[in-house]
Amino acid sequence: MIASFYDKDFKGLQNNASLVIAKDSYSLVKRPVEMNTITCVCEPFTEDIQPTFLVIQDNKGSYVYGCLAGIPELNKDNQTEVNGTDLKSMLSSDVILEPTANNYTTVNDYITYIFNQWKEQVNQNSFNVELVFNENVGTINLTDLTPAIEEKDVYNAYDELAQYLKYYNLYIDTSIDLIDKKVVFTIGRTMFRNLNIKLWEYGIRNYGKWVADINEAQGYYNNNGVWTAGYKWILTSDNNITTNESLRDIYPIKRSVVVSTESLEEANEESLTELLDSLYNENIELNADDILQANANFETKFSIYLKQGQGKYKELPCGELQYDATGLVKVQIGYRYTGVEFI
């Protein structure tokens, strides 16, 4: 594999544009919403300038992965240690938002609005950037999680995007287009293509259950001392969120209260998003055999079967894709990221 460094104008740095990566050092973990991680060791990078972008290519020169270059460090063995930074981190900056002024009705429009505000306020034409929706995303109507910002306020663009991606079963991927010299942010749909996983065929008996920190969240609107209760959101053991108390099946109850002095809508939104961070998760890690290598990605919906003869246990999204120099080696299911369906 080859590491290539580029400046802010996507121009390859002289004498260090193509450095051979030590095969055993390459590690890439991709995540659907959370930040990716990449590390490797390559031939010495000797340019005085700090590079902006890092592009990984295979031995044939085909694009594999692109990210921010971070700070390459030369070690005692005269090799460069690379810890790349996910391009999604570019979005982690403050923006001023006023979404209710536009009365957004679709997730697509609201995500585009956040991205365009980041592009204008933060990126400021420093890079050519583009937002793309995969065809399978379609048009998604805003339902229970909706923008509750009634006045202009400051928000972290990445954090605001992340909660909508998680709630509406979406992921974000990135790439560097060296031909058109731009960074591309791509929105895709999770839980889209079914793949049956029979755990007994892999000898897996422990599938890593965690109990949520909280399993109930409720917002209250404090209007000059008059409190109005919002929805009582309840987390269930099958990764759903409901307001129907008869469907509660996680005990003991662990409750969080969120108070807003702005509006009841904001209280409902903030309490719901807090509960999203405490979903009941499974952690199933599988080696990427030929079947998984051909099919598993962030669009995969894993239908889990625990024992032969039993029905389906649960449907879970892809949490991590782990790569080494040979390609995809492990797939992590239901850990770090879980879809949610409102009942």
Structure description:
This protein has 4 helices and 23 strands. It is 14% helix and 37% strand. Strands 3, 4, 7, 8, 14, 19, 20, 21 and 22 form a 9-stranded mixed β-sheet that branches. The longest helix is centred in the middle third of the chain and has 17 residues. Strand 3 and strand 4 form a beta hairpin.
Our measurement of the CA-to-CA distance between the termini, rounded to an integer number of angstroms, reads 47 Å
Query: What's the total helix number?
Result: 4
Order of helical and strand elements: EEEEEEEEEHEEHEEEEEEEHEHEEEE
Q: What is the percent of helical residues?
A: 10-25%
Mean pLDDT: 87
The beta-strand count equals 23
Major sheet: 9 strands, mixed
Rg (CA only) = 22 Å
- Identify the overall geometry: globular
Unreliable spans = 336-343
Beta content: 35-45%
Structural category is mainly beta
How would the blueprint of this fold be written?
Blueprint lengths: L1 E5 L12 E2 L6 E4 L6 E6 L10 E5 L5 E6 L4 E2 L5 E6 L8 E4 L9 H17 L5 E5 L19 E4 H11 L2 E8 L4 E8 L3 E6 L17 E8 L2 E10 L4 E3 L12 E6 L3 H13 L7 E4 L2 H6 L4 E6 L8 E11 L2 E7 L7 E2 L1
Parallel strand pairs: 10-13, 14-20, 15-18, 17-23
Antiparallel strand pairs: 1-2, 1-5, 3-4, 3-21, 4-8, 5-6, 7-8, 9-11, 12-13, 15-16, 16-17, 19-22, 20-21, 21-22
In short:
The longest helix has 17 residues. The protein is 14% helix and 37% strand. The protein is mainly beta.
